[in-house]
Amino acid sequence: MPVHPRVGKMLLYATLLGVLDPVLTVACAAAYRSPFVMAMDGNREAGKLARQGFSNEAGGASDHLAVSRAFAGWETSRANGGSSGERAFNQRNSLSGATLNMLRGMRSQLLTALSGRGLIHDLRGASANAGAGSLVRAVLAVGMYPLVGRLLVPGVGANNAGGGRTPTLATLRGEKVKIHPHSVNAKLHDAARSSGVADKGPTLVCFDDVTRGEAQLYVRECTAVSAASLVLVASSLTVEALPPARLPPHDPEDAAAAAEAMMERDLAQAAQDAANEAVLVCDDWLKFRVPLPVLSQLACLRIRLARAFAAKVQRPADALAPDLAEALRATATLLAHDGGAAGAGDLAGGAIGAGGYGGGIGGFGGREGDWQCPRGCGVVFASKSSCFRCGIEKGAVVHRGGRGGGGGCGGGGRSARGAAGEGGAGRR
């Protein structure tokens, strides 16, 4: 296909995981330009508000998904209101009709290329899971990797020092880049600090390009993403032992305080040993606390995902082997539920977790006997007698006490327990 290799990778993962429609728009806009323009009356604030509004519809914190939602709204306005409705929509939302038409043509060309190579039958079939916002974000992260940065939040942890008043990203390559003021994420560090998210783990952001300003490096278009997707595509994974528990702050000259501190440390060390966890390091950058039994499962899933990708590159029209198809279904379920729904309109819990997969290439037909985890983890394959994430047995009854579906499992959860940038392992 006549696209940058990174864009091609993103599109192929989008077809494999059934989220082609929104990702196709993002890919075209990245190759051409954003359709958002300064308001004709010079009112910059109107354009910012329009972009922010579309981003919020997609769960927030995403310039890329703002473009995707704007394009979808534009197509609806054309279909329902004709040329007058289209003009009104563009004026109201500070959009360039010429750019949107160009994106429409580029989408058509890429769809023809994908179809001609046998990768898809039609757009609808390749977008069966497009309503799962977390899955769409994961595909963006996978496609743009290694263009990923960790948000530096001033005053939160030693490794986050130096974030400054403008949100700053520490990239995998060791650079520090600013988020451009025009981005919907221009105040992302304030949101992370005020919400307490920064205390639970790093905020990761993917981007498609870095530009040089007068004195700074900037990213203009970026999206906040989950760390879990990066585990599946990182170049290298290594495993480290958890660091030993530390003594809590105390007065070393106070014998009683010192004894109490040592007791607390010993208890913490015992709890850590009982947890049966290790540190999973991705590309010498991101670190996760992961239950030991999960490590082999992640390694197997990474291998099968890579094999599925290679199989589609080499023989795009052929059906995947059953083990690779199941690996894709497991990947889609995991990524769609990671971190819960991305926003109010995210269908992660329904589109995938509770309803199986749509037919056609890009979607995965639910097989007879597949069952739904009662704790909301997602669909479990018919061959499995227990949930692959929380371990609950098939047929078990769970009495809910306010637990939301799709946000993860309690008790015996088997998902990665935390992520930390360069500084060390943390909890999410």
From TrEMBL:
Pfam families: HA2_C (PF21010), OB_NTP_bind (PF07717). Residues 1-25 form the signal peptide. GO terms for molecular function: helicase activity; RNA binding. Residues 406-428 are annotated as: Disordered. Residues 136-236 form the DEAD-box helicase OB fold domain. PANTHER family: 3'-5' RNA HELICASE YTHDC2, ATP-DEPENDENT RNA HELICASE. This is DEAD-box helicase OB fold domain-containing protein. It comes from Micromonas pusilla (Picoplanktonic green alga).
